[in-house]
Fold:
Amino acid sequence: MNRNVYFAGSIRGGRADAALYQKIIAYIQKTDDVLTEHVGNLSLNAHEQGRRDQLIYEQDTGWLRRADVVIAECTCPSLGVGYELAYAERFGIPCHIFYRHSQTDLSAMLTGDTYFHIHPYEKLEEILPLLDEILGNRQA
Amino acid sequence: MNRNVYFAGSIRGGRADAALYQKIIAYIQKTDDVLTEHVGNLSLNAHEQGRRDQLIYEQDTGWLRRADVVIAECTCPSLGVGYELAYAERFGIPCHIFYRHSQTDLSAMLTGDTYFHIHPYEKLEEILPLLDEILGNRQA
Structure:
């Protein structure tokens, strides 16, 4: 309950999964806090330069360092998400990676790194009980 | 001359730029050593699981730690390249990032990170003199 969750999903790498990110974020928000709620904002303009990039970087890495856990949806390749995962590992933040295995082969830099918890899935419904378990919200 | 160069480019994220990677690698190899020559191999099967992922990870991170410099082509989004760049930063390896600015908006996690040297470009010919300069091979 009320853990700080850093949700990582593709922004400039492509917004094909934005609606899925929104659903995952909404589910987590039932019990916990999502620092990166904007990743699921369907009207987020990936090309918007409103927040200067250095400010985005400083804010996001600050959030990463104080996160209790990182939840990453990695079906859509993204340089930023790859960076965030390595950064979180550096600071010892637990990382859970989800990807639809029928649609993508995940990078060996992630699947080969024993630090990460990797969860292949196909449908959103499969994720939800795993999220409960990761966040410690599963009913006994 | 004979510097150890880690060239980073997308493999499982997509091979659209594989021929470009090959040309950049061949250019660097005229004067220096490229640890990751396979990234430019046009017959590399991105889905091949021949090398087990954990072995790939151990080998690539080992190469990163002993590289003199990382040269990354980042036009095609890639989780692995994002991871590699953060990993190289952690170990203090200089990183030069190239991307075609008419084709992609680079992640703010890269453009906003003052550690990285970012080089937008359009044509291969623009890269070559920059590579000479980075590698210290420019004629006085």
